Automatic annotation (TrEMBL):
The keyword Manganese does not apply. The lineage of its organism: Eukaryota, Metazoa, Chordata, Craniata, Vertebrata. Residues 117-163 are annotated as: Disordered. PANTHER family: CDKN2A-INTERACTING PROTEIN, NF-KAPPA-B-REPRESSING FACTOR-RELATED. It comes from Cyprinus carpio carpio. This is CDKN2A interacting protein.
């Protein structure tokens, strides 16, 4: 649905159901752009009838599930995230009839480098395109961004002015949520389900985690002398803010390690969103990074994704 037409449909629906307007607006994430929110709002409103037990203003498992599915769909459309195939099929079915105007289209590294071995798969599926061409991979993957070298004008943009201050209130709330969750789990330790803890805390704050996976062998900015080439690397972001990177033999192990690294940041007295320099596609870029209060020198791993490029 084009944004203007979708806006007309949603506006008409809300004018007929004015009791929903303030409630649905309260579901907006603090870091969502207008385009992202308008699309996700329509997803939520269109699918309320699928969850008849949902009552506006009343927390419930059904509402939590609907909001989680809406975040999965929005992350897929706007950030190129992939999830297990049954989940992807479910959100595509729920989003039928919703079209996002000028949605980002992404390519794999081989396609960008001119080594195309298979037809390009769009990470954005605006008009039920996924039902005609389903990806063969059922795991969480984000081949959304090339890890090769960028075009000359690809990295002109960066975090908007004042972005750290805008994001800080959200991460203050997330800090409290993580603190309570870890207390109930008996404290931070190596045997926790780190990803599940982080995911549940983020979702309780009405946001979602973005997981980007890249094979280790495809990363060009590895330290000199690194001989390990097998395995996967996972980068975690929330609301475009970088939280952690992890390596593992497969995607689940890499995601668990990245979540563990992210939770370490919450072990101090506070967390702070700052602009830091990182390597991305062979260039130094400004990135939003979540840090603890320690004033030590930060050696950050190369970025696997960069949500501040001009075309986004």
């Amino acid at each position: 649905m084009a944004e203007e037409r979708g806006g007309d449909i949603v506006s008409e629906f809300l004018s007929q159901n004015p009791h929903l307007e303030n409630w649905v607006q309260s579901l907006r994430g603090p870091c969502e752009t207008n385009k992202q929110w308008h699309a996700r709002r329509e997803f939520v409103l269109r699918n309320m009838e699928v969850f008849p037990s949902i009552k506006p203003g009343v927390p419930s498992p059904s509402l939590d599930r609907l909001l989680s599915l809406s975040m999965v769909w929005a992350n897929h459309v706007f950030l190129g995230c992939r999830y297990p195939q049954p989940v992807m099929d479910k959100v595509h079915e729920m989003a039928e009839g919703i079209t996002v105007i000028e949605a980002p289209v992404r390519k794999t590294r081989d396609e960008i480098m001119g080594k195309t071995k298979r037809p390009a798969l769009s990470a954005v599926d605006a008009d039920s395109q996924s039902k005609k061409a389903k990806p063969t991979d059922t795991d969480v993957k984000a081949h959304a961004r090339s890890v090769g070298r960028p075009a000359a004008s690809a990295l002109k943009s960066g975090p908007p002015p004042g972005a750290p201050a805008e994001h800080q209130p959200f991460f203050n709330r997330l800090y409290k949520a993580v603190a309570w969750k870890l207390v109930s789990a008996g404290g931070f330790g190596p045997n926790l389900e780190h990803f599940e803890i982080l995911r549940s805390c983020v979702e309780s704050c009405k946001a979602g985690l973005t997981c980007v996976f890249v094979p280790l062998k495809d990363i060009p900015d590895l330290p000199t002398g690194c001989t390990q080439k097998e395995g996967q690397v996972c980068e975690l972001r929330c609301c475009t803010v970088y939280m952690g990177t992890g390596y593992g033999r497969d995607e689940a192990a890499a995601r668990a390690m990245a979540s563990k690294e992210a939770l370490k940041v919450f072990q101090g007295q506070k967390v702070t969103v700052k602009v830091c320099r990182r390597r991305f596609q062979g260039q130094d870029v400004d990135d939003l990074v979540l840090l603890d209060e320690q004033s030590r020198s930060q050696v950050l791993p190369p970025a696997l994704s960069y949500p501040f490029q001009e075309h986004q």
